[in-house]
Amino acid sequence: MLRERIIETASQLIGRHGLRRFTLDDLAAQLGISKKTIYKYFSGKDEIISVFFDEVLGSDRTSTLQEMDRATEWRDRFRAVVFSYHKYKLPLPVIEEARLIYPREWEKVEAYRRFKVRLLTDLLNGAVGQGLLRPTIRPEILIYMIEKTSSIIYEHQFLHDHGLTLKQAWEEVYQVLMKGICE
């Protein structure tokens, strides 16, 4: 139970301060425990960060696959891949920090991105093959558009400037994609 509380609190601190400025001193203070207690569960900050990334990406993967299994139509499966949810938030600045200073965690993010791209590719190719999308649709271009769009709408300033929540922004993207590509 304490191990989960440590990761949950670490996720909040990482979200607030980023990977560099997240400290075990802050974590211990927030939890009201000693650093020695944290070391009973984790070897240090790097292990906590590693477990945090495993939790975020693992819960997102599980959520995506569960939603895809529940979906009966390809549009709902598409939505499940694009609109996946995870246990803890993974802000874009944290992902960027991982790219710069935590290569093992960055590789986890990249592996997850490749997993999502494979799901989308298979899904879109299947939809084209079934005649649900125009045969001229090239899945690799659509996937690239989704990836680039996601990097824009995850920017806090963009959402703020346009008075949108992340969910609203993704809903708009989904509507544009579906009305623009479906026959």
Describe this structure in words.
By secondary structure, the chain is an all-alpha fold. The protein has one domain (46-181): Tetracycline Repressor, domain 2 (Orthogonal Bundle), CATH 1.10.357. It has 10 helices and no strands. The protein is elongated, with a radius of gyration of 19 Å. The mean pLDDT is 87.
What's the CATH first level? Mainly Alpha
Radius of gyration: 19 Å
User: What coarse outline follows from CA principal-axis ratios?
Assistant: elongated
Q: What is the CATH architecture term?
A: Orthogonal Bundle
Give the helix level as a range of percent.
over 70%
Largest sheet report: none
What's the rounded overall pLDDT mean?
87
Tally the structural domains.
Answer: 1
**Percentage of β-strand residues:** under 5%
In short:
The protein is mainly α. The chain has helices at residues 2-21, 24-31, 35-41, 45-70, 74-82, 92-101, 103-129, 139-153, 156-161, 166-181. The chain is 79% helix and 0% strand.
Task: Provide the descriptors you would attach to this structure in a database record.
about 180 residues, Tetracycline Repressor, domain 2, 10 helices, about 80% helix, about 0% strand, DNA-binding, Homeodomain-like_sf
